[in-house]
């Protein structure tokens, strides 16, 4: 069997599980990238090559686990995010395309400003921290998470990508930054209400860490209020420099977008805005620190 046929059969078997041909194509290509390091161009170049029995056996193993709803990224132990190959495991969430959008917004805003001090709260695999460290010139990035397991993954990713990041194992509800210590704070905290879990994919519910996903129905802004308090302290020297600094950037649950905006305004943040994702849902929030008048 050649590579082209192996790829087509892999794509068809995944589509039979997911019911989505486009997702199946992306997942099949990710499998071949993980096994051989091949890009889409390489797959064309090597299409007539013979697929080894070892490769075909590994593909069978991967597809058997996929059929049990295990996320492909955990099976491979890796995913792609913002042009980077990242390790992931069951201590970390699988980074989503929406989070890449958040990074792109921040890079677009600050790519010309060096030496920014950045805090990523709830870093998980380190995806946001790493992307900002590599794309904001001479930035000094700190990444915080309560999970030692997640930080072990993030440290591996940073070491492999030669990124200089300070990692902190801290509970966000106990962490207190020094006044004026950061220019940017970003977070993709838990934001899914427990009541939403009944409609979620089993690949998420059965495998991804619930502590990084869910908040109580009674208090869906639990983490955001704490992050806002951290930001107000970390931004206490606001009032000079770039007009959009210091600033807080958040990935959010569209269901709670308006209450979140009202909370940030109530805490004193200025120029609070909600930003839509590619599906035109309010997925991100931006807020500037209160100005010194």
Structure overview:
The structure is a single chain. This protein is an alpha/beta fold and 293 residues long. Helices cover 41% and strands 17% of the residues. It contains 11 helices and 11 strands. The chain has helices spanning 3-18, 21-36, 40-45, 53-66, 72-76, 97-110, 127-135, 148-160, 202-205, 222-234, 257-266, and strands at residues 78-81, 84-87, 117-121, 140-145, 165-169, 184-187, 192-193, 214-215, 247-251, 270-276, 282-288. A 7-stranded mixed sheet has the order 5-4-3-6-9-11-10, sandwiched between helices. A two-stranded antiparallel sheet has the order 1-2. Strands 7-8 form a two-stranded parallel sheet. Strand 7, helix 9 (202-205) and strand 8 form a beta-alpha-beta unit. Helix 1 (3-18) packs across helix 2, helix 1 packs parallel to helix 4 and helix 6 (97-110) runs parallel beside helix 7. The longest helix is centred in the first third of the chain and has 16 residues, at 3-18.
Secondary-structure map:
Layout: H1 3-18, H2 21-36, H3 40-45, H4 53-66, H5 72-76, E1 78-81, E2 84-87, H6 97-110, E3 117-121, H7 127-135, E4 140-145, H8 148-160, E5 165-169, E6 184-187, E7 192-193, H9 202-205, E8 214-215, H10 222-234, E9 247-251, H11 257-266, E10 270-276, E11 282-288
Parallel strand pairs: 3-4, 3-6, 4-5, 6-9, 7-8
Antiparallel strand pairs: 1-2, 9-11, 10-11
Helix pairs in contact: 1-2, 1-4, 6-7
């Amino acid at each position: 069997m050649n590579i082209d046929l192996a790829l087509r059969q892999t794509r068809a078997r995944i589509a039979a599980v997911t019911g989505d041909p486009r997702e199946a194509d992306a997942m099949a290509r990710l499998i071949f990238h993980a096994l051989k390091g091949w890009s889409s161009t390489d797959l064309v170049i090597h299409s007539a090559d013979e697929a080894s029995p070892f490769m075909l056996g590994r593909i069978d193993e991967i597809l058997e686990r996929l059929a049990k709803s295990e996320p492909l990224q955990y099976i491979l132990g890796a995913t792609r995010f913002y042009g980077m190959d990242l390790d992931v495991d069951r201590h970390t969430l699988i980074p989503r395309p929406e989070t890449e959008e958040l990074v792109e917004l921040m890079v677009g805003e600050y790519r010309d400003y060096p030496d920014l001090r950045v805090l990523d709260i709830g870093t998980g695999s380190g995806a946001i921290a790493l992307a900002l460290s590599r794309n904001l010139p001479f930035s000094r990035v700190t990444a915080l998470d309560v999970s030692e397991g997640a930080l072990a993954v993030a440290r591996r990713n940073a070491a492999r990508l030669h990124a200089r990041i300070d990692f902190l194992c801290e509970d966000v509800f106990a962490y207190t930054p020094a006044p004026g210590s950061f220019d940017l704070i970003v977070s993709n905290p838990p934001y899914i209400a427990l009541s939403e879990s009944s409609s979620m994919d089993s690949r998420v519910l059965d495998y991804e860490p619930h502590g990084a996903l869910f908040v109580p129905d009674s208090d869906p802004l639990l983490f955001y209020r704490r992050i806002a308090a951290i930001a107000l302290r970390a931004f206490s020297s606001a009032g000079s420099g770039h007009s959009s600094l210091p600033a807080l950037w958040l990935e959010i649950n569209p269901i709670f977008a308006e209450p979140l905006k009202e909370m940030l305004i109530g805490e004193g943040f200025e120029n609070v805005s909600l930003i839509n994702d590619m599906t035109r849902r309010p997925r991100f929030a931006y807020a500037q620190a209160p100005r010194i008048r």
